[in-house]
Amino acid sequence: MSNSNGFMKALKCRECGHEYPLAATHVCEFDFGPLEVAYDYERIRKTLTRDAICSRPHTMWRYRELLPIAGEPTVGRQVGYTPLVRADRLARRLGIRELWIKNDAVNYPTLSFKDRVVSVALSRSVELGFTTVACASTGNLANSVAANAAAAGLNCFVFIPHDLEQGKVVNSLVYGASVIGIRGHYDEVNRLCAEIAGKYPWAFVNVNMRPYYAEGSKSMGFEIQEQMGWRIPEHTVVCMASGSLLTKIHKSYQEFSKLGLVPESKWKIHGAQATGCNPITQAQKAGLDFFKPQKPNTIAKSLAIGTPADGFYALRVMKETGGASDDVTDDEIREGIRLLAECEGIFSETAGGVTVGVAKKLIATGKIAADSSAVLCITGNGLKTLDAVVGHVGQARDIKPSLREFESLLARENPELVTA
Amino acid sequence: MVRILIPPTLRKLCGGDDTLHLRARTVSELIGQMHHRYNGVRDRLCDEQGRIRGSVLVYVNDEDIRFLQAQGTPLKPGDEVSIIPAFAGG
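^ inputs. structure came back:
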């Protein structure tokens, strides 16, 4: 690569356009607007072709020119390229012609889409000379930062709400990270991390490294387009915590379209939240372009952000693309988890239950037309949020190791299967 | 006196300090006092109508002022005010 900054040109304020060097900083000094990475698209156009992409390994790094690091990735080189599954059985249950599941529940190494953003953020942190990395997290991010930092030999602090699911906590501790539980909800964890980031010279992936980190989410959208046969899906349903993933999937569609990698087309991006934490969907449904902060109360803890950083921009994307949004109760979330599991054999965490539940509502109300095609983004693995479904998915029936006892059970429960 | 935690974004303007102590009875008055001491602070924190920008979060004793009385939130000696960029986390 000829340029020492790779394909990046600068950090640029999304509000006022003021430019900054490519350092560890995330907001504009003049209006506190978010900084984004500006790319040299003319150079990218010369090397990022379909043929070039297809010749590269099946990881998120096959779209390397559009990911914000200067050199080659050093952390998380194996991340991404998760399956896009045709979901015919679920499509029939939801009443839509064509349905696809983008399954980041099996992303490597920590079973959520967060491995994408962390791979970028930590690779960039290493480039900038950091030796300690950290994050504010609702769980999945902490798992990914802890694992990837361990593999890269970096010191690691993760800050989480103290009442997270046990699976999420253990999945950070096992990698040797310092796990700090904060007695408060995520927004308080986030505030504390902003204060710590202002004092300690650490790379907080979603604070001072956020311009790089957030771009990693685009890779989920790049993969969707390639796996759909180089086209943009008509409808994409994305769960929203901060709203960042939704905005970056939209950006991935814009970038591939601009670079001529996919034909120009119209697309709609729809947002999904839990009713117990729905600042963005509440605003969207009321036709507002701003949200009111909330105090979350939902089993979808990975989405429990009452002050979503990108809420404003997520609302704008939904408006611009003609997308809709909705939210679902805890019971509807569990039903969504079961639907996906029973129809497609995919066990999602609670956030996936939110996505499926909201997709069901949007299809039922015609906001996603029955004769159209949709992709549902599943972002995390159900094994991490067992607490949310234990007691709601039935239970195993224990019997003696006896054929007679088994057949007695079968006669009671599935008499049509009994062989005389 | 009220203790203010200054975010890195504002430190260059505020002479490099990461904390500041001022007298003020409300959040609005506090921003005015900061602006008086370090010219330009108000323009960075507030829009043309004088409202705190959506990109800025202000906490009084760890509580988001949007859950209190917004810019009219009263302050008393010993309170801690934290100013945080909204675009973080998630």
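Residues 244-258 of chain A form the longest helix (15 residues). The mean pLDDT of chain A is 97.
thumbs up if we can close this ticket
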